[in-house]
Hints:
It is a single chain. By secondary structure, this protein is an alpha/beta fold. The protein has helices at residues 27-40, 50-63, 67-74, 91-103, 112-130, 152-160, 177-183, 204-211, 250-253, 273-278, 282-294, 310-323, 336-346, 359-366; strands at 6-11, 137-139, 145-147, 166-171, 190-192, 199-201, 219-224, 227-234, 240-243, 263-267, 297-301, 328-332, 351-352. It folds into 2 domains: 6-17 and 142-371, no CATH class; 24-130, no CATH class. Helix 2 (50-63) runs antiparallel to helix 3. The longest helix has 19 residues, at 112-130. The protein is globular, with a radius of gyration of 21 Å. The relative contact order is 0.14.
Amino acid sequence: xxxxxxxxxxxxxxxxxxxGAPLTKDFLVEGFNLxxxxxxxxxxxxxxxxxFRHVAxxxxxxxxxxxxxxxxxxxxxxxxxxDSWFPKVTIEEILTFVDLGxxxxxxxxxxxxxxxxxxxxxxxxxxDYSTGRPRSFHRNEDGTWxxxxxxxxxxxxxxxxxLNQENCFITFNYDLFLDESxxxxxxxxxxxxxxxxDFVENFPSYKTxxxxxxxxxxxxxxxxxxxxxxxxxxxxxxxxxxxxxRKYKSHKRNKCNKCNSRLRPILIPPTYKKRIDEVxxxxxxxxxxxxxxxxxxxxxxxxxxPDADIEAKWLFKRAIVExxxxxxxxMVEPLQEVRDRIREFFGKTAKYNRNFETFEQYCEIRRPxxxxxxx
Length: 375
């Protein structure tokens, strides 16, 4: 029997920009502006400013900014936060500093543990409000969910992914757009996180499909190398939790079913390998390596292989060199300098297909003619 071709799709923050998600470099300024707008217009009475204030105070201490005062000023004035007010640091780098402080037993006021919780809250709230447009969900008579299929992720899963190939999604995003498309779609594709969960909440179809054999042709691994908004772990007993993507906020309120301790999101900064091992993501990385060694095609959508993500760069470099297949790489990236950098990174270990400026352009051109929407 002829070997099935292997197609790996790689997603970074740029893949979700068309849905309102901020790029990594813009995450802090976007988050604080969403806070200001929400408070000034009373859009979310339950939103607490404490987490944003803690992050602002931490940035003030490290970089001598004046963000905590800006947060106070912006509570009722719909203040627009300017990019120039922020240091050239990402939310993930800040999370790395805090994780290092916790592991080294260092002290800070407020505690590093509280700061980590605050950063998680800022990530949750920023992604929730920046991407929270109506999704047109409805429940079917058989209890399943469906919605209007209108995102680039939907088009990719419904119309572009070739079920004659072995497909794999590797994503560095915390958001759940890819997850939604892979679990509710028109191809009967089943997304598998390849991570064992001790408790699965509001997601019976996932538990059923992972416990029973499914058609391998429609199985797509969703390898979330930095964690996910709908994953959580108990710090005490290390049990892992999965929530349905529309119910992921339940993790913030719930406690562990086994030991009644607090649950924490599994959100891993890209520069911090130790945390990957602690929360049990090592197997996800091992699976990514295994599939990359077999890859015939790699489509990179909105991911730039930043220098800070050295673990990911080594994962790809090692897998492709040891696999020796010289996969054909397609880049979906608007910036020529980023495309050049990716090409230099892979060098002659890969071959190169045409490039696309945006996810939308990629979907429009790669979508089969009979499935295109006439304008």
